[in-house]
Write a structure and sequence with these properties.
This protein is of the alpha+beta class. The protein has ten helices and 13 strands. Strand 11 and strand 12 form a beta hairpin.
Length: 370
């Protein structure tokens, strides 16, 4: 005898099936929503703030590319000697990582300044794939069509406060030549990126308003002077201020000279004025004073502008007569109506690296306002 299900039982069966299907769909929707929320949260999660000191550059590229002419070329330019130091110090301190290195140590992705190199003729390279992914097809097409386009700049790739400079070429030799062409612009951009960090280090002790006021009274200019500077010597038409640390002594002297002729902005005239200022900077030995060293290292002059005024910047090494002390200097001769304002910044740091001290002095002088 065949048993037929009742209409009520049939409806109950359909209801159970529909309930199961609804439950499954609900679970799927919840799962998708949870995953979507997690993805949204991960994208909204605050990035770390990038760390590392000024003048530090991380190069990301494949190891075989770094060991070729590409790495040699980059080191030649980026680690060139900083002008002028008694002992060589590099302009930038360079470290190289492969993409695998970044995976192994995630903290390496939280530094401040990166130069990422890509050989576009090697599409299997992980570094090249990363660059192509970052730049996109539009920029890749432009790189293939426009030989003048071989760099791009990004920000905050892995952490806040990051500068990312991409350099790409077709083959190792082409990439090496592109590094040579791009270096001046890259160095300028890195220096601009480092400026807030240098400013923070320079004015860690806030500002000395009394010294700034004295400078304005004597010379009619304003300079932003760090709070831990002191006046070492205050004479008519001459002021010497200094910052004394155990590791280094940073100094600034200021003096005005009457303008006589254009030769004062040439090497001999420039050094003649600087050495007259040096007579006021006496050493501990009787009869010892500061002079420019013209024998052991070259002295470079550069034309520049400070607060809209024509200026010449000189770099070299100073020494004390009758003594064995010396160090780097950067001096500015600035045209101001019928006078020349000389600002001489110099460092004494025996046995220590001096680049960062010189940079801070340059940063102070860059605050000059007439």
């Amino acid at each position: 005898m065949t048993r037929h299900s009742s209409p009520v039982a049939h409806l109950r069966g359909n209801h159970i099936v529909m309930s199961i299907r609804y439950s499954i769909m609900l679970c799927v929707l919840i799962s998708v929503s949870v995953l979507a929320c997690k993805d949204t949260l991960s994208r909204l999660e605050a990035k770390q703030t990038a760390i590392s000191a000024a003048n530090e550059v991380v190069v990301i590229c494949d190891d075989n590319l770094w060991e070729s002419a590409v790495g040699d070329t980059l080191i030649f330019y980026f680690e060139a000697p900083y002008p002028i130091m008694p002992q060589p110090e590099p302009i930038f301190e360079v470290r190289q990582f492969s993409t695998e290195d970044l995976v192994e140590a995630p903290l390496r992705r939280e530094l401040r300044t990166y130069v990422i190199l890509a050989n576009l003729d090697d599409p299997q390279s992980i570094s090249t794939k990363m660059v192509l992914n970052d730049l996109g097809e539009e920029k890749l097409r432009r790189a293939r069509e426009d030989s003048a386009y071989f760099t791009s700049v990004g920000r905050d790739k892995w952490a806040n406060g990051q500068l990312i400079v991409y350099v790409f070429g077709f083959g190792a030799d082409d990439l090496a030549s592109k590094i040579v062409k791009a270096y001046p612009a890259i160095a300028t951009r890195i220096n601009e990126h480092d400026r807030p960090l240098i400013d923070a280090g320079t004015y860690l002790s806030k500002e000395s308003f009394p010294i700034a006021k004295r400078i304005k009274e004597k010379f009619g200019i304003t300079l932003k002077i760090p709070g831990d500077y002191r006046i070492a010597l205050d004479r008519e038409n001459f002021l010497w201020i200094r910052q004394d640390f155990d590791a280094a002594i940073s100094n600034i002297t200021i003096m005005r000279f009457p303008y006589e002729n254009a030769t004062q902005f040439q090497l001999d005239g420039f050094l003649s004025m600087r050495d007259r200022m040096g007579l006021m900077v006496e050493g501990t030995t009787v009869g010892s004073f500061m002079q420019s060293n013209r024998e052991d290292l070259p002295i470079y002059l550069y034309k520049k502008e400070l607060d809209g005024h024509y200026a010449v910047e000189g770099r070299g090494v100073w020494e004390l007569t009758e003594d064995f002390l010396g160090g780097p200097f950067v001096t500015y001769a600035i045209a101001d109506s019928s006078e020349i304002l000389m600002i001489d910044a110099f460092v004494h740091a025996p046995g220590k690296d001096k680049r960062n001290y010189v940079q801070r002095l340059e940063h102070i002088v860059s605050s000059l306002k007439f």
